[in-house]
Amino acid sequence: MKLVEYFRAQIREDPDVASAVAAIRSLLEFLKRDQSETILGLRENQTKAIQRLEETDSSVAVSSGGELFLRFISLTSLEHPDLSQCKNVMIERGELFLKKISLSRGKVGKLCHTFIKDGAKILTHSSSRVVLKVLENAAADNKRFTVYVTESQPDSAGKLMAQKLHNLNIPVTVVLDAAVGYIMEKVDLVIVGAEGVVESGGVINKIGTYQMAVCSKAHNKPFYVVAESFKFVRLYPLNQQDVPDRFKYKADILKTVKDLNQEHPMIDYTPPSLITLLFTDLGVLTPSAVSDELIKLYL
Amino acid sequence: NITDSDPDGRLTVTDKDVKLQEIALAKNEGKELTKEEKQRLRKEKKQHKKNKKDDKGPPEKEKEKEKASVPAPSKPATQSPAHKAPAPVHASESAAAAEKPAKSKAELRAERRARQDSERTSKQGKKEGGQQSASSKPKATPNELQPVVKRLPEHVQVDDPAALKKLAKKLERQQVPLRSDYGYKVSLFSHLHQYSRKSPPTLQISIPATVIHPSIVRLGLQYSQGIIAGSNARSVALLHTFKQVIQDYSTPPNEELSRDLVNKLSPYISFLSQCRPLSASMGNAIKYIKKEISNIPSQCKEEEAKGKLQACIDSYINEKIILASEAISKYAIEKISDGDVILVYGCSSLVNHILCKAFEKQRKFRVIVVDSRPRLEGREALRRLVKKGIRCTYVLISALSYILPEVSKVFLGAHALLANGYVMSRVGTSQIALVAKAYNVPVLVCCETYKFCERVQTDSFVSNELDDPDDLIVTRNGKSHLENWQTVKSLGLLNLVYDVTPPDFVDLVITDLGMIPCTSVPVVLRVKNVDQ
């Protein structure tokens, strides 16, 4: 259980870090402290650790980040006769992976802020650290823009986002979730973050994103998604129902509640036909290029 | 004459290409180059190679080495390396090629002008360092300007008499009977063959067949009569027949197996395509076999080589068809949830396999089988599924919009997946995909990777297959309407076999490599080519 404590400690110390990055840091620390005698043992322990972390924080990013981490560290020649040497190689690669993904948010911010023109009105949903970074970069570039944030019930994360933007001196307005259709004609573009990017090029994000996407399509406004590459996951949902239950609800609810039909899902799925562009640290992608990148990452 | 120099006194630049083209022209016209001329040509080739190496070689040197009789003014040194006009040789060649002197001169003149234009622009753009690339640029442009006619496959050029004549000649050479078209063809599809089932090409083969192996004759008959239908079945039958052919093959003396066997296979393939046009899967299988045969090392003994080839064919069938369908079933079963109502169209061996496997895995679902005339393949699918114990409903395609509100998923098979993401499948498939999209029902296409082909098509007209029009004649209550359709001059019967579905209507493609969106087919093709 030290792993879970370490994970929670990481998130507490650095609230700005993505939960997946914290998860990967914990996994790396776990690997360093692991006492197994065989490589297979190491990998099994890692897989179990990932499962335990998923139980703590049921977001898609933790699951995808963990899997990518495991693939990255083991996708190298582990033919050394000495186990400690192999372990060192794996730890080295783990550090490399961690360094790469810590920089990914910065890369995304740099790519995306050029799409925000002077005088733009931006609509965003709930609280996303990546979107915050993008808006930060745009503000640093001396661009003038206003932001509308949805309240995003049930956890009112939107108000948190509004506070952060206020601290950056960006004019921000909080709107009701139900007011998305009303405000859509005023805005120029929509930028949202993502919890997971799926194989079809669609995204899984806080509930309410799908609505926003449908509205923006109806008004012909561009709908941009910003996500780091470790959020790419090997799922392919066909519709809302097809998203596995373990992602839809918070981890503690999954454990305690019997009848999930009474619970409100925390995420929804936005199909690729509604998304204009995806900004990732691998570049600016159209939804159909996501599958290409996924094949490169996973195969 | 090609030795004419330009008004601004710049040298006419002949490229190696032009020279080679001239040589080719002369060769084609059957003129024997005299020994002297051959020697001259060889010298000039060497010269050209040398010229390329020293960029700043003074033009004068080249001139002297070349035929001095050409009064070629020297080029200023800033120009890209001057390529000499091997004029006397060409002059003699063009004199020798007396049959088409005008054409060669005019062509050469046009090329010369184009090359000079390109050289002028390349000169302006590039500096000295770019001289090497500038010399290669003029090479590229003449090629572009020469009309590069991409060869259209014969089977979409039926209304072109020249193409037909070529085909007839080729078949005569291979001693394969030519099948004649039957009946009036609808004008939009007059570029495709239309054969009658009552006159298979096997009628015209003498017994015993000397050129065509008897199992190929049997296979051809089975194709043309529709006894073997469905792209997987056809490919597997083809591969098994090829195994038989290889078994019975014996290398003639002074020949190599790797080359002779490929030549032996060509008339068989022509014969089979006369019986029924080849499918994309069969095309890929044939390409694979030909590659394997030509990769047989020459030291290999005949028995060993034959055994190797048979093993190759077996492993191809096993990997690409049987194991692929297992992998696809595994992925597809994840997408089938309890309480699903699944719609299938026609009879796809792969989709039937998936549904049977899902039923074995205790998934609760029911199936709606949609069928269409004249093939009525859905009845076969219905028979197989009901035998397994799956609850099925059967409708004709005209009732599609009536039952679609009940459906939760559509599973379709494919004949081929084209490089631009379009799905080629039995006629009626695109209709089902279109209506399903209108009702927001997810459409899943299941296709093995060996059916992916490099072709690009956006409509169903360019390349298709016309089946026997007599199939549309229906007999009811003892009366056969349309029986005498040929007597009515303005009536044409159209029996299309395939149609093409755009990728926007398809939500997911399940292949043995995994689940991919329809737009990722070129990625898979690229990955496959890298593997090979």
Automatic annotation (TrEMBL), chain A:
Query: What InterPro entries does the annotation carry?
Result: eIF2B_alpha/beta/delta (IPR051501), elF-2B_alpha_N (IPR042528), IF-2B-related (IPR000649), IF_2B-like_C (IPR042529), NagB/RpiA_transferase-like (IPR037171)
Which one Pfam family would you cite for this protein? IF-2B
The entry's function note states: Acts as a component of the translation initiation factor 2B (eIF2B) complex, which catalyzes the exchange of GDP for GTP on eukaryotic initiation factor 2 (eIF2) gamma subunit. Its guanine nucleotide exchange factor activity is repressed when bound to eIF2 complex phosphorylated on the alpha subunit, thereby limiting the amount of methionyl-initiator methionine tRNA available to the ribosome and consequently global translation is repressed.
What compartments host this protein? Cytoplasm, Cytosol
Q: Which domain of life is it from?
A: Eukaryota
Please name the source species.
Cyprinus carpio carpio
GO cellular component terms, semicolon-separated = cytosol; eukaryotic translation initiation factor 2B complex
What this protein is called in its record is: Translation initiation factor eIF2B subunit alpha
Family membership, please give it.
Answer: Belongs to the eIF-2B alpha/beta/delta subunits family.
* Quaternary structure, from the entry: Component of the translation initiation factor 2B (eIF2B) complex which is a heterodecamer of two sets of five different subunits: alpha, beta, gamma, delta and epsilon. Subunits alpha, beta and delta comprise a regulatory subcomplex and subunits epsilon and gamma comprise a catalytic subcomplex. Within the complex, the hexameric regulatory complex resides at the center, with the two heterodimeric catalytic subcomplexes bound on opposite sides.
- Enumerate the UniProt keywords alphabetically: Cytoplasm, Initiation factor, Protein biosynthesis
Automatic annotation (TrEMBL), chain B:
Q: Name one GO molecular function term.
A: guanyl-nucleotide exchange factor activity
Its localization reads: Cytoplasm, Cytosol
InterPro entries, A to Z: IF-2B-related, IF_2B-like_C, NagB/RpiA_transferase-like
- Major place of residence: cytoplasm
Q: Which UniProt keywords apply?
A: Cytoplasm, Initiation factor, Protein biosynthesis
Q: According to the UniProt entry, which residue ranges have a biased composition of type Basic residues?
A: 40-51
A GO CC term assigned to this protein in UniProt? cytosol
A single GO BP term for this record reads:
animal organ development
UniProt feature, compositional bias: Low complexity: 85-99
Show which residues constitute the signal peptide.
Answer: none
Bias (Basic and acidic residues) occurs at 28-39, 52-68, 100-129
Q: Which Pfam families match?
A: IF-2B (PF01008)
Q: Which residues does the annotated region (Disordered) include?
A: 26-157
Complex formation: Component of the translation initiation factor 2B (eIF2B) complex which is a heterodecamer of two sets of five different subunits: alpha, beta, gamma, delta and epsilon. Subunits alpha, beta and delta comprise a regulatory subcomplex and subunits epsilon and gamma comprise a catalytic subcomplex. Within the complex, the hexameric regulatory complex resides at the center, with the two heterodimeric catalytic subcomplexes bound on opposite sides.
PANTHER family named in the record: TRANSLATION INITIATION FACTOR EIF-2B, TRANSLATION INITIATION FACTOR EIF-2B SUBUNIT DELTA
Q: Which family does it belong to?
A: Belongs to the eIF-2B alpha/beta/delta subunits family.
- Role noted for this protein: Acts as a component of the translation initiation factor 2B (eIF2B) complex, which catalyzes the exchange of GDP for GTP on eukaryotic initiation factor 2 (eIF2) gamma subunit. Its guanine nucleotide exchange factor activity is repressed when bound to eIF2 complex phosphorylated on the alpha subunit, thereby limiting the amount of methionyl-initiator methionine tRNA available to the ribosome and consequently global translation is repressed.
This protein's name:
Translation initiation factor eIF2B subunit delta
What is the originating organism of this protein? Cyprinus carpio carpio
Could you read off the lineage of the organism from its UniProt record?
Eukaryota, Metazoa, Chordata, Craniata, Vertebrata
